[in-house]
Amino acid sequence: MKELRLTLADEDIQKIRAIKAALEGCYENWGAAVKVYVQSTGKHYTLRAVKYTGILHEKLENILGKENIEAIL
């Protein structure tokens, strides 16, 4: 996977903290860069590369909903 794109409707600090907590422990030197897009402000954030697993996907889906997660191969 090249990239993991996450979309937030607005800058919800609780969701941002939950995303960071979900990514904790998944960081690696080479892997998918995580791009976070905030729709209400148009801001983009790029987070460290992660090892993308089914468990991480499930955690992110619980936080953001399935429609807000895009894995780019």
Your description of this structure?
The protein is of the alpha+beta class. It has one domain. The protein is 30% helix and 41% strand. The chain contains two helices and four strands. It has a four-stranded mixed β-sheet with strand order 3-2-1-4. A hairpin with a 4-residue loop joins β2 and β3. The longest helix is centred in the first third of the chain and has 11 residues. The chain is globular and about 30 Å long. The mean pLDDT is 89.
Based on the structure, what is the oligomeric state of the protein chains? Answer: single chain
Count of discrete domains: 1
Report the order of strands and helices.
Answer: EHEEHE
Q: Averaging pLDDT over every residue, what do you get?
A: 89
The N- and C-terminal alpha carbons lie at a distance of 4 Å
DSSP summary, beta strand count: 4
List segments where confidence is low: pLDDT < 50 over at least 5 consecutive residues: none
Shape: globular
Order of strands in the sheet with most strands: 3-2-1-4
Number of DSSP helices? 2
State the helical fraction. 25-40%
Q: Report on the biggest sheet.
A: 4 strands, mixed
Query: What structural class do you assign from the helix and strand content?
Result: alpha+beta
- Rounded radius of gyration (Å): 11 Å
Relative strand content: 35-45%
